[in-house]
Amino acid sequence: TWRVWAIYMVLAANLSEEQALKQPCPSCGATQLCNCSSMGLDFIPSGLTSKITTLNLAHNRIKHIRSQDLQQTVNLRVLLLQSNEISSIDEDSFRSLGKLELLDMSNNNLAHLSPAWFGHLVSLQHLHLHGNSYRDLGESSPFSSLRNLSSLHLGNWWFSTIRQRNFEGIELLDKFWIEGGNLSQYEPGSLKSIKTINHMIINIRSIKVFSAIFRDLLHSVIWLEVREIKLEIEKTSLVQNSTLPFRIRKLTFKDASFTDKYISHIIVLLKKITSLQELEAIDCVLEGKGDWNIHEIVSSGQSSVEKVSVINIMILDFHLFLDLDGMESQINKLKALTIASSRVFMVPCKLAKHFSSLLYLDFHDNLLVNNRLDETICKDAWPSLQTLNLSQNSLKSLKQTASSVTRLPELINLDISQNNFGEIPDVCEWPETLKYLNLSSTQIPKLTACIPPTLEVLDVSANNLREFGLQLPFLKELYLTKNQLRTLPGAAPIPNLVAMSIRRNNLNGFSREEYVCDSPLAVRGEQVGAVHLSLMECHRNLIVSLICVLVFLVILVLVALGYKYHAVWYLRMTWAWLQAKRKPKRAPPKDICYDAFVSYSENDSEWVENIMVRELEQACPPFRLCLHKRDFVPGKWIVDNIIDSIEKSHKTLFVLSEHFVQSEWCKYELDFSHFRLFDENNDAAILVLLEPIQSKAIPKRFCKLRKIMNTKTYLEWPLEEEQQQRFWENLKGALKS
Predict the structure, then answer these.
(1) Are 430 and 451 in contact, with CB atoms under 8 Å apart?
(2) Assigned domain for 449 exists
(3) What single-letter DSSP state applies at residue 359?
(4) Is residue 69 classed exposed, middle or buried when 0-12, 13-18 and 19+ CB atoms within 10 A define those classes?
(5) How many domains, in total, are found in the chain?
(6) Are 374 and 404 within 8 A, CB to CB?
(7) Which residue of 153, 250, 520, 731 shows the fewest CB atoms closer than 10 Å?
(8) Are residues 428 and 486 in the same domain?
(9) Residue 648's domain spans which residues?
């Protein structure tokens, strides 16, 4: 078995088709979950039984699904086939999968979709077909028998056509995603057969196709998310020839591009959709400076939208953005507004005063400073506001911030976390209605009477606090995580406290008379001062930590000893030996694929690949050599590949050199440990000495290599050109023997 052990760095050729079909997936035993992902499989493995409910074959090289492959998996609920190379499926391949609920065939090579594939999948709920190469869905509907389908994801870069009958049979979808970046043909009415779609995502670039699809979805979709579109002016109305009532409530644009002219146009068009309540723009680009057609917008009447979210919008000339003077009449019905991560530094006072119905305002992750905040929250601005988020801005003064928000008479919730205040004044003015205050990560060193006594929730986590002594009679929740507190807060000043988070502090004491024990159960309810616990009960974490440290030190010592005495090397070779024992000593002649397998150092690759390979493979008749760079496909574990590779080679040719031994063996034991297991009585090895090797340069643990070099004839590469022809004749003779 020396040839099996001989080469530890070589990757083997793939299993033959016959072997692959007979070899089952190791994890598909008696369990219900069968995970065969990322195993380099070319076929669906055999031996799949009715016990399996989940089969994961993702990230393999499967090209074809045959009718008998899944015949026995009658209880399968989940089948994952994504990221393979599937290009063909027998029409009755899924006929036994009547209980299947999820099928993922995304990112394959399917050039068409056949209705016959899905005809028996009566329980299917989730279907993923995106990332293939089909250009359309055919003349009819591939999904007509999928009556229980709730989510569908289809489309790809080449997907270009949707026809009228493509979605017949589908009446309700919870989520529908079409990747149609190059969708250019859409037959009107194609999506009208779907009566209800809770959330639809469509990647689309054609404004003409988008308009046609939008009109078909007005009566079915509840939340429409449009991605990657470049919105430009189009004369046609989005609701042309559409009748009330509409169902769409939320419209999201993501990764879209707008111009000033289209902003004006879309605002006017969307007003006609009376069911629309929420509008979002995420990761979009505005190519303009707010120069909108205010007259056109105002004259078109009021909008039904109550919630607007603008997140991470890129305004190329944001410093030139206009103040939207004249838009006041269009904002007085808004109830929630989010403008986040968009470099906003102020809202004009005149505009802010007309947000008369706004209850929720989120300005987190912007460029607000105290002076601009004072103008943004001017007198009579935001009169109904109850929740304000100013986190992650550039506010520096807590006193000025408190003074600004005092002008909000209805304010209940205030988040000013992640602003670098650094200091806290002794006294502040706050709205009398304030109940929630988030001051986490604001670099305040202490707490003073600046904190309003009306609070029910206070978060001062991640600061530099060393003590807490505030009188907060209404406080119910207190968050003190990641500070430097040494004692727990006293219970008397916060009598209504229900929850307190105080993790990651430096606690070493607290008022024993004010607290009772919660655990262990044996002492629950007793005063802390009256309870005495053992060392193990009190310092369990410390003792466990010490044990872990000791175990770590022992492992460290064992690793060091193992490294010094090459324990890992011996363990690997033992495993290689066990693997080899399971294989026959010689492969049948029909399985021999190569005349010789070549093992060589990377430093000698120029001689091997440019001189030796050329000489042998261009001989008459030519020799077939196996080289790892050219012939091997990685994927299986290296020892298994070695075993199969050597068994399929008639001879094994070793090219030895000084740096082969001295450099590579010293640094990469895995690359050359195979030499240790030579069997000197076997004549299948051919040794080529590229240059003289000193015996003392070979590591002692490779004793068999020393012995073989002393007892076995080997070929030496001559430097003289007149002797090289004899060398090649001898080498060819050895390969033929």
Answers:
(1) no
(2) yes
(3) -
(4) buried
(5) 4
(6) yes
(7) 520
(8) yes
(9) 594-736
The DSSP-derived string for 199-264 is EEEEEE--HHHHHHHHHHHTTTEEEEEEES-B----SS-TTTT--SPP---EEEEES-EEEHHHHH
367 with 310, same domain: the answer is no
* Sign of the four-CA dihedral 16, 19, 25, 26: negative
Q: What is the 3-state secondary structure (H, E, C) of 268-334?
A: HHHHCCCCCCEEEEECCEEECCCCCCHHHHHHCCCCCCCEEEEECCEECCHHHCCCCCCCHHHCCCC
Q: In terms of residues, how long is the chain?
A: 737
Give the contacts of 613 (CB within 8 A, at least 6 positions apart). 598, 625, 627
In a domain, 167, yes or no: no
Q: Are 459 and 598 contained in the same domain?
A: no
pLDDT at 6 over 50: no
* Diameter over CA atoms, the chain: 104
Return the number of other C-beta atoms located less than 10 Å from residue 153's C-beta. Answer: 18
Q: Would 467 be classed as within a structural domain? A: yes
By C-alpha distance, which of 189, 227, 233 is closest to 207? 233
On whether the pTM is more than 0.90, the answer is: no
DSSP conformational letter for 366: S
Of 236, 270, 239, whose CA–CA distance to 253 is shortest? 270
Q: Are residues 428 and 374 in the same domain?
A: yes
Backbone phi and psi for residue 410, each to the nearest 5 degrees, phi listed first: -110, 5
124 lies in some domain: no
Instruction: Count Cβ neighbours within 10 Å for each residue of 618-645 and write b for 16 or more, e otherwise.
Output: eeeeebebbbbeebbeebbebbbbbbbb
546-605 residue pLDDT tens: 889 999 999 998 888 877 766 666 676 666 656 555 655 556 777 788 888 887 788 888
150, 254, 338 from 285: Cα distances, Å: 33, 10, 17
Same domain for 603 and 539: no
d(CA 56, CA 155): 22
d(CA 454, CA 475): 8
